[in-house]
Amino acid sequence: FRLLGDLSHVIAIIILLLKIWKTRSCAGISGKSQILFATVFATRYLDLLTTFVSIYNTLMKWMFLTTSFATIYLIYFKFRATYDKNHDTFRIEFLIIPSLILALLINHEFTVFEVLWTYSIYLESVAILPQLFMVSKTGEAESITSHYLFALGCYRGLYILNWIYRYVTEDFHDLIAIVAGIVQTVLYCDFFYLYVTKVLKGKKLQLPA
Amino acid sequence: PVEEPEHDEL
Prior knowledge:
The complex is a heterodimer of chains A (about 210) and B (about 10).
Chain A: H1 2-23, H2 31-44, H3 55-78, H4 93-105, H5 112-126, H6 129-138, E1 140-141, H7 143-170, H8 175-186, H9 189-197, E2 205-206
Antiparallel strand pairs in A: 1-2
Chain B: no helix or strand
């Protein structure tokens, strides 16, 4: 489940990078969500410098870090003329501050690394909101953008299956990650419904006005 | 010693 989840995550990021690079445009893409995702990786993968889990773990962490910052570069620098800032207006400070406060209050251990890891977990659960908000504001999304969102939504959904499996088999559970992962996946439900009923039938993703 | 909560997931 975890491997599928990570692959779904990688596919989402590659779809987004290819969409922007091929169409040389980031229309319909929320730069704010990408900033939040880069922050999530930067604060979660600090342990790259200290602990080694596995080759796979290290490779994936570096890949997520480099691709998320590359996406930001494309949006805010290379193709900034196509960045639709009038529709990307979600106030991300309302996501950042509460996540930070919550991470300081509810965590496994009050150390810098652990609080930052917890912050990244809470922030990731709401990081897609600016993008979903932007899609609702523009009222539609290009089909490639909806495939990106579908893959991204599946990633943490698959992680939930992984957590169930690990709880049953290893009696392992991390409530912070599980609760945040459920919140994160639930946020996509509305989109999943539209994706399955519309995009898979070849229609454009049109949100009811 | 307190088991350092190592996060083995991405």
